Amino acid sequence: MRHSPAAALLALAAFPIVLASCSDITAPPAARPVADIAPPSARWSDPGTWPGGVVPAAGAAVVIPKGQGVLLDVSPPALRSLTVEGDLVFEERDLALSANWIVVKGVLQVGTEAAPFAHRATITLTGTAADPAVGGLGTKLLGVYAGGTLDLHGARRTSWLRLGATAAKGASQLALEGDPGWVAGDHIAVASSDFDPLQGEEVVIKSATGGALTLEQPLKYRHWGVVQTVAGYALDERAEVGLLSRNIVVRGDAGSATTSFGGHVISLAGSTTRIEGVEFYLMGQKGLVARYPIHWHMAGDAAGQYARDNAIHRTFNRCLTIHGTHAVAAEGNVCYDHMGHGYFLEDGSETRNVIVRNLGFLTRTLPVGQGVLPSDAQAGTFWISNPNNTLRGNVAAGSQGFGIWYALPTNPTGLSTNASIFPRQTPLGEFTDNVAHSNSRTGLNVDNGPLPDGNTETASFSPRQIPGTNSAPVVAYFRNFTGYKHTGRAVWLRGSYQRLVNATLADNGIGATFAASETFMQGGVVIGESENMGALIAAGFPIRGFEFYDGRVGAQGVTFVNFTPSARRPASALGFNRNNGYPTNPGNFIEGLRLIESNGVYLENPNPGKDGDKSAVFVDTDGSVTGVSGAYVAENNPMLVTPACTYQTAWNAYVCRQRFLRLSITSAGDETEAPLDVVRDDGAKTSLVGVPNNPKAANVALIPGRGYELRFSGAAPRHQRVTLSNMVAGEWVNLTMQFPRPPHIVRDGDTARPLAAAGSAAEVWSLAGDRYFYDAGAGILYVKALARTGRTTTTLAVDPR
Prior knowledge:
By secondary structure, the chain is mainly beta. It has five helices and 70 strands. The strands form nine sheets. The protein has an 18-stranded parallel beta sheet that branches. Strands 1-3-5-7-10-21-24-27-30-33-36 form an eleven-stranded parallel beta sheet, with no helix packed on it.
């Protein structure tokens, strides 16, 4: 039976986990180091090991009592259950263990870190969703309770690597970048190197000679395998190849494949879990909270615990979950063909976890209602809900949703609810050398944080020195990211004080867009098209490397290559977020750019219903694109153009030797501002429809030193807030607007010195912005907005007297 997330969370919170006393729960005994566990002398096969002298038969409920050690030297018949309160150690031989559920309160050991298991061990979890639940943890589980230790250490094998040559569709050979030591019979999975994440595929090795593999079946898709050199930059779009086979296997039974109800491993507070070199197959229970292949559940500080070099594949609910747990190491794992989010930091409280060189691909989204969370409909291969973690060298190699998703809640949710933790303002731990490619949605998405009910909302990541306060900002550095083969964006950042440093972005519909402020792309390369030509971006779509949006944002020292327009579609290094209704900052900028075989800019004609399009301008601080230091690039909108502008045909935009400001007008009352027209003193006009879903606000880019009339389509609002930003000292704008009554005007909040009335409009224009004139007969207000020394913004509060 499927349970709602809320109901399941309540159940988890309520179940008792009792070993001896309440003190055992609050201060559980530390698990014994593996080195302290002597090989048990009692053997499973020996009747003398068991009460009554009878070896457990099929269907038995077996308990290994505390203080008892048992060496598993045979493969028992399928058990109903196994409770390990003492020690159960697998002997070094081929073994299989099957049970409806296994609970570990002592030690379950298969190999050690110093001496990995060398034979084959298979643990199969059996049963159905209708079976009785085990202590609030469901069924078909391997549960590690307080005081328990799970040690699974398989043979050390190369977990994943990349191709060494391109493999054609229909080929039966693969050349790898090195010799991984893989052998005949191993199952491997090859990631997509094109736009379609479903081009990831599983094959079986027929024979292997070093890094040269012969496959038992031909490949269904082409997989790229060459490192390109583009304008002196190394572009690595080689498909990853992950090893799925391991000599230790934890799996669901065969029925799991048809029911999507596999086994699950859960480690609780006070337990110790160390897993390496293990294959997890047919694991996870679709749509059920806390039923994941590998899962640390509310375990607190788990320093020294890890999941390393494991293969987790064909799963029905995530791959690896870290929930309410800190300092876990997840390293070198392969997560392939899984439902919902893959590597999952669940609530937003999880910190100091080290997530390094993991591979995830063929991430499958689920319709809303079928996943654990509504966000599983846009599943991310990596779901990171708190920024204070280390992500280094990971690869999100093909998701039907997002690749790497920083999904930051305002405060932690679920069982970790805590109003004193602020993930959206927590400094970033580390983000270095990560890769995302072949994802249907954005490769690196920093936005869309979870709400308590599991839905997501727009989420700005704005780290502070002291989260939850208005303390000084802390810059978040996303370093050396590689993003390629996204029909949409490779990168989307929302928030403030973020840096995308030395990124390599290639073969994307859009390289990077920042819905942010004080957020910049610094260094690196953006490549429009490479030699890895597979599927094509939709005809007519204007591919671009960097998009301006919101602001202040910018690109510094970035190289753009191969943004060449064609008869099929426009292309440019720079552009604006398309069909944009929101205001952008005229201080958005570029500097130190290098263009190689690239059209610098392409701007579509503005959408009449989108005010942001009509005000699209940015400044070229050093002339690296326009050839003129300090020149602005402006949208093809007559309101933005003067004789100081030159039209660039290939850009469908103007280069203007003049500055731009932003005028924002907001009604402080119930009236609406929009629609309205803004008319320049030479008759140039633009019509504004207002900010989406907020007709009380409207914005437009203006040229300083000119006069503008605001013509409202309805009655003029009685409470106006007029703000001009991106100004420098001495700049001014003359404003003429309808107003219903004699006004009271306060500049920049200085209520002690409201503006005084002048005798005429001409007097206002001749003065330094400290007077206004109101024509009572015509109901027209004349006022000058002047930038004062030390201020880049001027605000006029206009209210009736």
